Structures are given as structure tokens and as C-alpha cells.
Amino acid sequence: MHGALSRSACKLALFGVLLLCAARDGASVPQRGMLFPRESASRELKELSGLWDFRADQSPGRSLGFDSAWYKSRLAETGPVIDMPVPASYNDITQDPKLRDFIGWVWYDREVVVPARWVADKGTRVVLRVGSAHYYSVVWVNGVKVMEHNGGHLPFEAEIGDIIRENPQAPCRITIAVNNTLTLETLPPGSIQHMDDTSKYPNGYFVQNTNFDFFNYAGIHRPVLLYTTPKVYVDDITVVCFLCISGLVSYKVSVLGASTTNVKVTLTDKHGRCVASSSGPSGVLKVTDVNLWWPYLMHDNPGYLYSMEVHMTTADESVAYEDIYTLPVGIRTVRVTSTQFLINNKPFYFHGVNKHEDSDIRGKGLDWPLIVKDFNLLKWLGANSFRTSHYPYAEEILQMCDRHGIVVIDECPGVGIKDIRSFGNASLAHHLDVMDELVNRDKNHPSVVMWSVANEPAAEMPPAGFYFKMLISHTKALDPTRPVTFITDSNYARDKGAPYVDVICVNSYFSWYHDPGHVEVIPIQLTNQFENWYGKYQKPIIQSEYGADVVPGLHSDPPMMFTEEYQKIVLQSYHKVFDQKRKEYVVGELIWNFADFMTAQGSVTRVVGNKKGIFSRQRQPKAGAFILKDRYWRLANETGRLPPWNKYPCLL
Ligand code: BDP
């Protein structure tokens, strides 16, 4: 990206970001529940997806919006605006390269009609929720700042009832400013580089450097909505499942707004039959003849979900409050031994993919047709799992995983941590905060079986040992029921984080980045990779990435790099070794990548993006997809149970 910023103006813009981060840390909000907004007899929703007004702050310091208080009136009154869809990344929406590669603050606003009853009833909380916006956000309602959020992949919300009640006749104006600048202390980290050589660069020229391999799409990526709860409300629910002879669901409900409340919890099966109930804010539900939550292809009836209705009542002075929230609950356990990954005490083998939230035009914006298409492709492929490389995905996607039995390794945005300054205290504190937010958001999803705290950090650097010890022990304390990992590269000797993880996840690109063109080295190098890691740590291993770029439609025999034949032979060579080692301690294989995805233009090894997909970015299969499909169905036949309707996957 190039910008017309003077060096001092540019520094100012970055300072703006840093100051906002510092301000937030100073006034850090206590951790609250982050229940996914659902309608019920006591809760209503109003979706704010659609067209918003939009303007990028192109001023030299990127600070004109703040200096001129653009949040005080409609954006259209302070300058030109364009239509911007929400949710979507803004980068690929126009023909303007300056917007595609923009760094700094962009502004969104729209007016909303709030239902009169919500405004009139002071016993109703009205909450504004943003599913995610990349990277740093500030939100105003009718010109009043209601929240800031640091981080691009997790939800944030604020109660806005008091503000809209101040002027009940006026439309409610929501303004959101979003800044995509990445610094050494953001997750993922990045840095701004000023190019001072005026014989090569215009005055004030700067670029955003990152150490990760995907385009830094920005904007409001997930739905924005208003929802209501009563003034006394269910703020959070935590469920943890155990298996004895029956299924045991231990629950904890936190209610805010009153000190004494009555809580009743009812668990119903798919037919609406009550299978267990309990009273009180915490307890254990015992389910006899339990239908366990099983992964896809491991059972005839995968993804079984009960409904847990939490019914809260209270009486506050003369007003009675009642809140109802229904949480889908899958009953399953997860455990690892030194050689196995167990779901419901049965060995589970990950045969799956790594993904990205990425597609044409929308970038990282949530898109239902794409989500459903991807799940259909996963099922076609016989994939039973994926990793949310390299950041938390939308909750809507995890809900699909719960329902379809797709197992998830849930990764935080700790990708590209390569600079020693990103291992400092401020970075660690933010990383711990992000893990709090992530675990809090995703703890109740049965599909989530493991947390991944980072991808390929510079684990050989001296501070890495302390950093990962803290991070992993913090994550285990947040959730003692799930294993924790971080994703490492193939060099076991340098790794300072591996002693703390439960499962070793290794990425390697033999015959691609190492010994390019020499597929004959794969058997020996991959076998040694596994033996070295297992020999040192005696923990189960997942091959968390492997693959090769393919330009779709490029062929050569004998195979050459970038052709469909080369991807095929790389995959097949890896598979032979997996087949030996999965008899011992290898518990999974995840191809890099499910689909081609966009990257920055910073590298000559990328031809309009990363092409290691087994599907193109438009989701058309390459030759590698058919290799994997044959293999995954064969593995499913061997290790699981094919659903009756799926005995003949070729008919799908
Ligand atoms: C891996 C990274 C991944 C890259 C991949 C590649 O984890 O983000 O996209 O390499 O280079 O090391 O294709």
C-alpha cells in the first residue's frame, strides 16, 4: 500500500491506534457472557445487515474523521459516501486500488428504526452487537461513544437503551469506525514501514508489513444486530459434559440485573421430549439412554443436539422479569492419550482440511451461500474436521459444525508472531485477553474439540518458552476439558512451546519449500519428522498442514510444480507415510488448503493468491480433491460408520 501521508502524519495515525488500545486497557470492561443472540419468548432480534453508508478517511493523518467528529451527524452530511454491504470486507467492493489496499480508519453509518415497544419499555435492554469487525473498532449511537474493541475476529456488544430513550422520536444512528492497522502488539501482528528514500518512494510513503500468508481483509465482517433481553437476564451459560453409564451435563447459569432469581433448566431431545431438568443456577442433568454427539462418518446419527432451555424468573419491586434462552447442547467427551485422540472414549482420526474465511468480492464477509456450499463440499469429500486457520471463524459456521458433526480445531489469530518484540508483556496480555474472549464465545460448541493458541510462531526465540507456557496454562485453566495445541513447523529441535501442548500439530512442505520438485524425498523426510517429534515428546501428532500449489488446469507428466499432477503425487506420497504412522501415534491429517485464497502482493511466489487449494477459490475441484475424496471415504469406511444414505458417495 502506498499512502500520501507525511511521516509525522503517518506516525500520528498509528499513535491514534495505539492510544485507543491503551485507553481500552486502562478501562478494561469485566468479562461478561457472550451468548449468541437468539430469539425466544423474552428476546427479539433486529438484523442490521444490508447497505450502510461508507467513507475511508483518506486525510494525511487518517484522523480527519475524529478531528471533525464524523460520528456527530450522518456521514453523508460531512462528505461523500458510497454504498457498502454489511457484512463484507470493503477491499474488493469497488474498482479503486486505493480502497483495496487502504490502511487506516474507515467509517460506516446507518439509521435504524427501533421498535417503539423496545424504546417505551424501560424493563427492556436493547443491545447492539457486532459479530466482528477487522481490526480495531469504535462505535457510537446518536453521537455517543458506546464501545471500542481491539481485535478483528470476535464479537462485541453494548447496551444502548438509555441512549435511544433520550430522544425516542429520532431515528437511531449507528456509526462504526474501523481501523485495519496491525502493530507489533496486535493479533495477528504487523508493522508499518516508512520508506524514507525519496529517490525511490514518494514523500510519506509507507507499507504495512505482515508475516502471514493471507490478505488483510478489513471492514465489518459479520452481522450487526440489535437484540433485546429483559432488564434481569441470563448473561452466560456454561455446559460441560461427562459420560458414566448415562450422559451428565453439568451447567452453570449466570444472571445479571438482580441478586435473587429462580432458574429452571430443561433438556429436551430432538422430538421435544424432556429428558432431564433441574433448578438453580448450577447443577447436573442426568440423561439416561443418551444420544451422544458423534462426528460425521463416525456414527449413523452424527451431530445429535439436545436443546437446553434456561428459564429465569424474578420479581423486582412491582415488576416481574422472565428470560428464556435456549442453547443447543451436544453430549460428548474429548480426551487424549500418548497415542490417541478420543471422542466419547473412541479413537478419532482427523481426516479434514484447513480453511480460510475467504471468497471473491466478499473477502472475509460472512456469506450464507458460501458457507452452505463449503459444508456440502466437506461432506462430498468425506472430511470429518477442519482447523479454523488462522483466526476464529463466525459462530454461524461453528453452529453448522455442531449440527453436521464436523470436528473443529479452534484457532486464535496468533499467526505470524515472528518479531521478538511481539513476545513482550503487552502482546502476551492481549493474547491472553483474546483467548478469554474466544473460549468464552466457543466453550459450549460440541464440535470444538481443541484450542490452538498460535500458528508457526518463532518458537525458537528465547522468550517463546515463557510466552507459551503462560498462554497454554491460561487456556487450560479457562477450559480444563479440551486439549490445547499450537501449530509448529517441522523443526522439532528448536521448539520451545511443544512441552506444554497436549497434541503436537506439525506443518511441513517437503518437496515444496524444502527440496522443491523432489517428491522422492517425502517418505524419508516425513518419516523422520514424525519419529523425531514422537521420540522427543510421546504425544499424539496431527499433520496440521501439507500441500502444494496448483494453477487449476495446468498439467504435466512427469509432474512439475504448480500442475495438478504434482499436487496429486505430493498428496499420495504423504498419504503412504500417514498410513504407516496412523497405526502408531499420528491422529490426523489436514490438507493445506481447502480452497485457493487471496494473499498480499508482497511475494513473487503468489500468483493472485495462494493456490494450494484442492478446490479453486470458486470451489471447483482440482485433481487433488478427487485423491482426497477417495482417501477420506476409505478412511471413514475403516475407522467409522458410513451413514446409510451415504454408502455410495459417488452418487452424491
Ligand atoms: C504455512 C502457513 C500458511 C501458509 C502456508 C503456505 O501456516 O498460512 O499459507 O504455509 O505457504 O506455513 O502455503
Automatic annotation (TrEMBL):
What parts of the sequence cross the membrane?
none
GO MF term list: beta-glucuronidase activity; carbohydrate binding
Query: What is the main EC category here?
Result: hydrolase
InterPro entries cross-referenced by the UniProt entry: Beta-gal/glucu_dom_sf, Galactose-bd-like_sf, GH, Glyco_hydro_2, Glyco_hydro_2_AS, Glyco_hydro_2_cat, Glyco_hydro_2_CS, Glyco_hydro_2_N
Tell me which GO cellular component terms the UniProt record holds: extracellular space; lysosome
Gene Ontology biological process terms, A to Z: carbohydrate metabolic process; glucuronoside catabolic process
Signal peptide segment: 1-28
Grouped into one coarse class, the protein's main location is: other
Q: What is its EC number?
A: 3.2.1.31
- Key words, A-Z: Glycoprotein, Glycosidase, Hydrolase, Lysosome, Signal
What compartments host this protein?
Lysosome
Domain annotation Glycosyl hydrolases family 2 sugar binding: ranges: 45-230
- In this protein, which residues make up the domain named Glycoside hydrolase family 2 catalytic? 334-636
What would be one Pfam family of this protein? Glyco_hydro_2_C
- Give the protein's biological function: Plays an important role in the degradation of dermatan and keratan sulfates.
Q: How does it assemble?
A: Homotetramer.
Family, per the entry?
Belongs to the glycosyl hydrolase 2 family.
**Protein's name in the database:** Beta-glucuronidase
What are the leading ranks of the lineage? Eukaryota, Metazoa, Chordata, Craniata, Vertebrata
The gene it comes from is GUSB
